[in-house]
Design a protein that fits this description.
mainly alpha; 112 residues
Length: 112
């Protein structure tokens, strides 16, 4: 196994989310603020810098997603209409969406 990939948390979908949202490295660096440079963003995208929980929590809101989605999901593989509704909803609306989804798709205790 490649030590750099293992050390830095392995592959992620940061590049795909940036493309999906139309954000380049310089824009993301500016949105992150502080002393974040486009080079640092490039290192995150290319797994040269660890995409830690701290980075994930900072990046996700800017890219209108969740930290888990940055790691596990290419946005082009997700049903974007549902995702966009979810990300636009406030906390109370999200509770209602979940309640409605449970009525429409009742849990059977199995996945698949």
């Amino acid at each position: 196994m490649d030590d750099d990939v293992d050390k830095n948390g392995g592959p992620n979908h940061l590049r795909a989310w940036m493309r999906f949202r139309g954000v380049n490295g310089a824009q993301l660096a500016t949105a992150l603020g502080g002393n974040v440079t486009p080079g640092m963003v490039s290192d995150l995208v290319n797994s040269k810098r660890q995409l830690s929980a701290k980075w994930l929590r900072r990046l996700a809101p800017i890219l209108h997603t969740t930290p888990g989605h940055l790691l596990d999901h290419d946005p082009t593989d997700l049903p974007t209409d549902i995702a966009e509704v979810w990300f636009a909803a406030d906390p109370d609306q999200k509770k209602k969406i979940i309640e409605l989804a449970k009525v429409i798709v009742p849990s059977t205790g199995t996945h698949g």
